[in-house]
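Figure 2 data, in text form.
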Amino acid sequence: MTGFGRAEGLVNEKKVTVELRSLNSKQLDLQVKLPGAWREKETELRQWAGERVVRGKADLYVGAEGTKVDKRTTFNAEVIKAYYDELRKVADTVAPESSTDLLAVVLRMPDVMSTAKEEFDPEEWKSVFTLVEQAWAAYEEFRAAEGAKLHAELKQRTNNITNLLAEVTAMDSGRIARTRERILARLEELQAKVDQDRFEQELVFYLEKMDVTEEKLRLATHCDYFLKTMEEEECQGRKLGFITQEMGREINTLGSKSNDAEMQKRVVLMKDELEKIKEQMLNVL
């Protein structure tokens, strides 16, 4: 969800700048900032951007800077004159010799100045929104480039897990036989007397608990499904997240049942690859 887009242009002799940026986040956290003249479009613009950004901590900024001096503050001459005349009468009656600057006092009185409020101009907003769309196009281009890199990395990490699983499969071919021989050799060392039938029953039960055939098959299926899902239409991030959870479950079970040092080393490497995949999943919509 990381992205950045920017566009600039002149609208009615105002320099308008639009910036859209986003960072990773599980939910959509969108902040929109507009100048006062276009504030009434904030809700509409927020909805428009939210439908496209989808997820992430995003900021949409629209700023306007005038290219010429624009006088916004005006003085109400009639109000100033009325204040001044009244204060002059009071001053002449109370303190005729006073040298107080009455005009300075009057200018601090209420309602002597007013600020003109800029009215919303629909035609002006059309030009501004064109810049918003240009910023969005740049933002999408940025995300597409990041997405291509992310796609390649996720594919490579998943293939690494598949390759490690192939190594585990090769090691697993004689593991049960080796375990059986190791147990028998240990019993001979101890010169323990055991009931052969009972021993075989317990051994079969123990070796069945070590069987990882189903885990290997399910993990291979999850890896294949992960790669296929990445090639589907957009907004597959949550689905891919669920698949990684299932991959992690099978890897953990594989490690707990392997009872083999070399296999467990591969399991640790698979966990490392899976964690790197999970770190990048926040970037996937």
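Caption note: Residues 144-281 form one domain.
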